[in-house]
Design goal:
single chain; 77% helix
């Protein structure tokens, strides 16, 4: 498969996961949502559950964008695995800036995710 088609498929997988498949995680990755659900959140066992939700969504997204690479290339499994972990953590950090720190808007969030995809595609393209 042509490399540019793989990039387009990665972008499509991003759209599907970040907008359609996120479901309840869209709320649960917000510390504000947990504060509305739990009294005295800072003193509860749920204090950091939003972080887990950020990570779960990050991994879901990261695996999803890597599916075209996994299915249509012979990229080394170790490299793919490293990129999945790196992208998952980066995605969670970016989403935290949008959902909790409120330091970036949706436009910057999506731009950062697209740059993640392009960088990942480029790394795999040159290897």
């Amino acid at each position: 498969m042509e490399p540019i088609y793989i990039l387009w498929l990665m972008i499509l997988c991003h759209i599907i996961d970040d907008f359609y498949l996120q479901g309840v995680l869209a709320k649960m990755k917000q510390k504000k949502w947990w504060a509305e659900q739990v009294e005295n959140l800072d003193d509860s066992i749920y204090k950091y559950d939003y972080v887990e939700c950020l990570c779960i969504h990050g991994f879901s997204w990261s695996i999803m964008i890597m599916l075209p690479i996994i299915f249509f290339t012979s990229a080394p499994a170790l490299l793919v695995s490293i990129l999945i972990v790196a992208n998952a953590l980066t995605h969670a950090i970016i989403d935290n800036k949008k959902a909790n720190e409120l330091s970036i808007n949706l436009i910057l969030d999506q731009t950062a995710h697209l740059w993640q995809i392009i960088a990942t595609w480029f790394v795999l393209l040159i290897i």
